[in-house]
Amino acid sequence: MRWKILIVDDHPLVGEMLETAIRDSYVHLDVGRVTSATDAEAYARKHAAEIKLVVLDLMLPDTEGFTALLRLQQLLPNATIAILSARTDSHAVTMAKAFGVKGYLSKAMPVENLVNAVGALLRGEALFPDQTPVDPRAEELHRKAANLSPAQIRVLRALADGKLNKQIAAEMELTEGTVKQHMSAIFRKLGVNNRSQAIVAAAPLLGKKAS
């Protein structure tokens, strides 16, 4: 079996450049590339046993925050996942580390450095900017959120967008009763009592600002 590296990035130049560079440098590996969180999930389901490393952009057209990361972690529990992003602020790096990624790489890095970073990640090394702190609260959020189902994540995102149960049910083609069941499960898993508390608790996961 040949191991695969999955690149998830909607920027064509960055994605194509990285794919080509990895193929040329690691000829014993296969490389897959997709441009959305939805396609990444589909690829992960199809090739789960073969995927060794995922290089994931945080900013994708069909998701926000760390929900794509969370889903890939659920689908690929044995794969190494690293973030490759143009966003390099300390909050994003700290959150990514707390959410269990093995590296945080900048798109501003030279191609040679990115290729070398891929090799380091494959060897099991962790790659973060110097002095990236540990955030126990973010780690606790990740522990709780890891138990959310895909449907519950969608409901949680809809709650954060201010949608009513009736709207969520229509968009997800569910009954309002099923939506309420999902909400009850969300509250239990996040350790909160109502939708307002759930939105605040999950804000870092969803890429929202808690109010």
TrEMBL record:
<dbReference type="InterPro" id="IPR000792">
    <property type="entry name" value="Tscrpt_reg_LuxR_C"/>
</dbReference>
<keyword id="KW-0597">Phosphoprotein</keyword>
<feature type="domain" description="Response regulatory">
    <location>
        <begin position="4"/>
        <end position="122"/>
    </location>
</feature>
<feature type="domain" description="HTH luxR-type">
    <location>
        <begin position="141"/>
        <end position="206"/>
    </location>
</feature>
<dbReference type="InterPro" id="IPR051015">
    <property type="entry name" value="EvgA-like"/>
</dbReference>
<dbReference type="InterPro" id="IPR001789">
    <property type="entry name" value="Sig_transdc_resp-reg_receiver"/>
</dbReference>
<dbReference type="Pfam" id="PF00196">
    <property type="entry name" value="GerE"/>
</dbReference>
<dbReference type="GO" id="GO:0000160">
    <property type="term" value="P:phosphorelay signal transduction system"/>
</dbReference>
<dbReference type="InterPro" id="IPR016032">
    <property type="entry name" value="Sig_transdc_resp-reg_C-effctor"/>
</dbReference>
<keyword id="KW-0238">DNA-binding</keyword>
<dbReference type="InterPro" id="IPR011006">
    <property type="entry name" value="CheY-like_superfamily"/>
</dbReference>
<dbReference type="InterPro" id="IPR058245">
    <property type="entry name" value="NreC/VraR/RcsB-like_REC"/>
</dbReference>
<protein>
    <submittedName>
        <fullName>DNA-binding NarL/FixJ family response regulator</fullName>
    </submittedName>
</protein>
<dbReference type="GO" id="GO:0006355">
    <property type="term" value="P:regulation of DNA-templated transcription"/>
</dbReference>
<feature type="modified residue" description="4-aspartylphosphate">
    <location>
        <position position="57"/>
    </location>
</feature>
<dbReference type="GO" id="GO:0003677">
    <property type="term" value="F:DNA binding"/>
</dbReference>
<dbReference type="Pfam" id="PF00072">
    <property type="entry name" value="Response_reg"/>
</dbReference>
